Amino acid sequence: MSSPQQRLSSITKQLSPASAGVSVARANILAKNPDDVVITYLARTPLTKARKGGLKDTSVDNLLISLLTAVRENSKIEPSLVEDVSVGNCLAPGATYLARSAVLAAGFPVTTAASVSNRFCSSGLLAIQNIANQIIAGSIDIGIAVGAESMSTNADGGAPEMAERINKHPIASQNYMPMGHTSENVAAQFGITREQHDQFAAKSFQKAERAQKAGWLKDEIIPIKTQIKDPKTGEVKDVVVDRDDGIRYGTTPESLSKVRAAFPQWQPSATTGGNASQITDGAAALLLMKRSQAQKLGQPIIGKFCGATVAGLEPRIMGIGPTLAIPKILGKFGLTKDDVDIFEINEAFASMGVYCVSKLELDEAKVNPRGGAIAFGHPLGATGARQVVTALSELRRRDERVAVTSMCVGTGMGMAGIFVSEH
């Protein structure tokens, strides 16, 4: 006959996370602590085609004003409590001035500070990390992280001048190259065929089409009231933009196979306008604070920011950045890929998507279940924040918990973050 201590030990083992199919590491990040950095509101604008879509005539500051106004109104946060707004942006000249003016125009008081975070395609995630780190350090109590980009109104972002400077630098000119070239380098070095590119891209469009038709994306998007100018007549009219417009219904690998190579000058010339991310306008935002603060204010807790990290690699194959950043962030929390319910990996190019999924041996059903940047578009500064909005919405729909977001980063980096849904 067993002793009371033995019976207690047996019961404890039965109730342990591991015995229930939950790893200790996963149980740790699911645990709720007063000092957790939580998300109490999040939303994104529609993502629309640059120079063609509904936001083509909407500047970055107007995107920010619309989105930050929605955060203030919908979250019902007392504006004076928001101490800092970090805006992820890559291209806008004078972005720091635009960020600060947009914060004030959106109805926040002069006491709310603003800054710009720029690490190319991970700028939105960097903004989240910057606000979260300030909260963790006790520098601020409440902040907003935003990612925003108008690729219509800031198409080159100073790229010609930067390219000229790089070309004159002996080391930089050997390492940094156009993004399209890096895609072809990944395809060449790792043997990714044009057929694999098109198959990956077709799945992105198909998943996005399903998500849009099912109405899942409405949970992510706030409508934007703006103006649009007819390029032929010059007529300006008021519009409400409320849906993503880059999703091409009925896309198949066969239809994509007919699209010509975008970079015939670089081998194997497998990248096309159909299997690479679209040039896009859009923004996303998250309201962050400690759990104890959210409970004190009666703010709804939507999710939790666990952490983020960055990794560097050869610039010439920058697209494989997530294969370094994802294992790094999982390792910091003792997690394995099986502990993760959803991976949002930015689809800058199909070449990097194919490689990352294969190299990390990910379950494809977990990767970009609503489609990715090939279908929606990749507004550079916004993507890192947009991915979080999408991931947490999909976790709620699936009644799942853990998401990893990641992206490759220009000049040879990768970034990744871990988020938990608390729906």
TrEMBL record:
Active site feature = 121 (acyl-thioester intermediate), 378 (proton acceptor), 408 (proton acceptor)
Might you name a Gene Ontology BP term for this protein? Answer: phenylacetate catabolic process
An example Gene Ontology molecular-function term: acetyl-CoA C-acyltransferase activity
Q: Which is one Pfam family of this protein?
A: Thiolase_N
Q: Which UniProt keywords apply?
A: Acyltransferase, Transferase
Q: Which Gene3D superfamilies match?
A: 3.40.47.10
Classification via PROSITE patterns: THIOLASE_2, THIOLASE_3
Q: Name one GO cellular component term.
A: peroxisome
| The keyword Transport is assigned to this record | no
Q: What is this protein called?
A: acetyl-CoA C-acyltransferase
The record, for PANTHER family, names: 3-KETOACYL-COA THIOLASE, PEROXISOMAL, ACETYL-COA C-ACETYLTRANSFERASE
Q: Which reaction does it catalyse?
A: an acyl-CoA + acetyl-CoA = a 3-oxoacyl-CoA + CoA
Which cofactor does the UniProt annotation name? Answer: K(+)
Source organism, top-level taxon: Eukaryota
